[in-house]
Design a protein that fits this description.
Number of domains: 3
Number of helices: 11
Largest sheet: 6 strands, antiparallel
CATH architecture of the largest domain: Alpha-Beta Complex
Radius of gyration: 25 Å
Shape: globular
Helix content: 25-40%
């Protein structure tokens, strides 16, 4: 009961303190009364569950579930992290943890794979982006929480786990038995393509990504057979990570100026993050590969490159995760932490990323697709924050959309699934990377154009 009393006292104190700071005394009384009524309702329900529910449940479990419900009703990314999850999050940010190597989200009560991280047990076993994990070790996880599923998939290195997935186009469930490993996420990989084109792959933004990327670019410049002519930065299926590292990576390509800004509830609460002077590539052409799995920190880098006209974005529209989560340790972390959405990201041109994403300059698909294929984005997640800039345009667009819908409904069925993205030819090998192939071709064209301009000048 002590735990319950402490929680309710804390809720009441937070409410009273907040209302006292925000409203005049005369107007605060009705709001306080309503708050107390709601807390009394919570107590009544908790008491009834404790006395009459079919099985005995611990108060701590019930209260934590209530806290989670409150936070998840706000948006998909706010949550309470119990102590063990808070510790796991800190470990993962450092780039090492025990598990399978999957980035996952929740979708209609099922755990959906955003992307398997490069060179991890899950990736090597054949788990693919878009798979739905429906069971773990023979037990269904449908309807469970994302945090519970993640907890089950993590564990000591060397221990086996069997996950069951449903995959689009496959009628029967697929079982993968995977041996957990220490997932040391080397977030950066690089190589030389065609003797003089640098390829830099960033799979996640953790604590050492910026420095690793800097060293990789220096190595590319030193090992190219002829002087480096440009760089392809691959951010496909990169789920994001630390804001600070997104700024550090952008700093490698930008010669000063703004990278991103964040804005909170108060319009005056604006923070701007700027690049330092000095472009490590010294103005060489830059191509950035993106897709619907590129989220958060990846979108910050892509948006900065695009708005500052520093490079060309190729691929498909990004995920659209443009909100900032602040992790607030509770009682020094002994009671876990609160992960709360506190701001939105904005590109240097003032565009909000939230629920809209970053559109590529040149739309190219990695395979042949139709418009009817369902690709989950931030806007599809339950309680996703709206993009307030785009929302202001909706009223003006509604009439035009209605007219377009009428035209689409009466269109030739063969044209309804048309897509604007360039797609690989039907005979293009499935095991080859069409987007990368086209990126190298476009980069070479940019190099030739630049050289022609220099000679003409």
């Amino acid at each position: 009961m002590r735990y319950l009393t402490l929680v309710l006292a804390t809720f009441a104190g937070m409410m009273l303190g907040g209302l006292g700071l925000t409203y005049k005394v005369a107007s605060a009384e009705p709001d306080n009364r309503t708050t107390y009524q709601e807390l009394n309702l919570f107590m009544d329900i908790l008491t009834r569950v404790r006395s009459d529910y079919v099985s005995e449940e611990k108060d701590q479990k019930l209260i934590e579930a209530a806290i989670q419900g409150m936070l998840t009703s706000l948006d998909p990314h706010s949550s309470y992290l119990p102590p063990e999850q808070f510790e796991d999050m800190q470990v993962q940010s450092s780039g090492e943890y025990g598990g399978l190597g999957l980035e996952v989200t929740i979708r209609q009560g099922a755990v959906k794979v955003v992307t398997p991280i490069d060179d991890t047990p899950a990736a090597r076993a054949g788990v693919e982006a878009g798979d739905y994990i429906t069971g773990i070790n023979g037990t269904s996880i449908l309807g469970g929480s994302l945090s519970e599923a993640v907890d089950e998939m993590r564990g000591p290195a060397g221990t086996p786990i069997t996950i069951t997935v449903m995959r689009k186009g496959v009628d029967e469930p697929i079982d993968f038995t995977i041996i957990r490993e220490i997932i040391t996420i080397r977030s950066v990989a690089s190589r030389i393509e065609d003797d003089n084109i640098g390829y830099l792959r960033i799979s996640i933004f953790n604590e050492n990504t910026g420095e690793l990327a800097r060293e990789a670019i220096k190595e590319l410049k030193a090992t190219a057979k002829t002087p480096l002519k440009g760089l392809i930065l691959d951010l496909r299926n990169n789920p994001g990570g630390l804001l600070s590292q997104a700024v550090e990576v952008s700093n490698l390509f930008l010669d000063g100026g703004e990278v991103v800004s964040t804005r909170g509830r108060d319009p005056r609460d604006i923070e701007r993050y700027n690049a330092r002077k000095g472009d490590l590539l010294e103005g060489l052409p830059l191509i950035v590969l993106i897709n619907a799995g590129s989220a958060s920190a990846s979108e910050i880098v892509a948006g900065a490159v695009q708005d500052r006209e520093r490079g060309t974005l190729i691929g498909l529209k990004t995920f659209g995760k443009g909100s900032v989560q602040t992790v607030i340790p509770l009682n020094g972390g002994r009671d876990g932490a609160l992960r709360l959405t506190t701001a939105r990201y904005y590109t240097p041109a003032g565009r909000s990323i939230q629920a809209t994403g970053i559109a590529p300059d040149i739309e190219i698909s990695h395979r042949r697709i139709t418009k009817s294929e369902n690709q989950v984005t931030e806007a599809d997640l339950p309680n996703a924050l709206k993009n307030e800039i785009e929302a202001a345009k909706l009223a003006r667009q509604k009439q035009q959309e209605d007219e377009d819908q009428i035209a689409e409904d009466s269109a030739d069925p063969d044209t309804k699934d048309a897509v604007t993205a360039e797609m690989p030819p039907e005979d293009f090998p499935e095991d080859e990377d069409y987007q990368l192939k086209r990126a190298k071709e476009i980069l070479s064209e940019l190099v030739l154009t630049a050289e022609a301009g220099t000679q003409k000048g």
